[in-house]
């Protein structure tokens, strides 16, 4: 094999969001229709996309990894086919944020991100959708949850607890607080971490799952899709298929190193693509961050 400069320290892990016009679950049967890759701005890369159609417009929410802050913030872009999608920051905290899971309840729109670095599970409400949000509730304190995702209409959710990086576990939690948190039946943690909101297809509830490589933060190998059934605090899954990034088609060539999120609205599918990118801003602040920690 030849030398690949992208695998050297000059090129850091980066992610891009991609979209296509398609119904939920089309990714399971159509690999040939291309996903359009959204270009990253100089300051950020984008991952963990959620897509929302609301009031006649379509919006993609995502983690924007900020090279200057050296942590994730949350951002949004309006999706208009044929027009360039431009990321805008919407929620910035003094700790890392990612996975902006969008929820609708009681006529209001909420956002529940991953905020495990703060050892909390937070809930934000849209004040002026989609750009202005306020923090309204702390759902959990003293926990490090990752990618918390509702799987039923009564508040039941799956989350990846990372209290111990070598021994994480998948928990079934009740966001309303009326039932205790319990370990999920599926405990293959390398093949169970949530990767997006479940969707219904052919009468079944399908859950996107992140297939990770190992416990050393080398994550995002591919996506697994499983049929899910819940009964009380039990959650059973039947794997359907696994999709790797090179199984799909894209609007332009891109270095493929993994993927770990799938979401859909009525008319659009979104994914993220793990790649590697040379960026002087990234290189500079990676260097400076070493002195901050010293």
Write out key terms for the chains shown:
four-stranded antiparallel sheet; mainly beta; 5% helix; globular; five-stranded antiparallel sheet; 294 residues; single chain
Give an overview in words.
The chain is mainly β. 5% of the residues lie in helices and 49% in strands. It is built from one helix and 21 strands. The strands form five sheets. Strands 15, 16, 17, 18 and 19 form a five-stranded antiparallel β-sheet that branches. Strands 2-1-21-20 form a four-stranded antiparallel β-sheet, with no helix packed on it. The mean pLDDT is 89.
User: Helical residue percent?
Assistant: under 10%
Structural class given helices, strands, pairing?
Answer: mainly beta
Radius of gyration: 18 Å
Mean pLDDT: 89
Gross morphology: globular
Q: Sheet bearing the most strands, described?
A: 5 strands, antiparallel
Order of helices and strands: EEEEEEEEEEEEEEEEEEEEEH
Q: How would you describe the oligomerization state of the chains in this entry?
A: single chain
Strand residues, percent: over 45%
What's the arrangement of secondary structure elements?
Layout: E1 12-21, E2 36-37, E3 44-54, E4 57-66, E5 71-78, E6 88-91, E7 98-105, E8 108-114, E9 120-128, E10 132-141, E11 145-150, E12 156-161, E13 169-174, E14 182-183, E15 193-194, E16 199-201, E17 204-211, E18 222-231, E19 234-243, E20 262-264, E21 268-277, H1 280-293
Antiparallel strand pairs: 1-2, 1-21, 3-4, 4-5, 5-6, 7-8, 8-9, 9-10, 11-12, 12-13, 13-14, 15-17, 16-17, 17-18, 18-19, 20-21
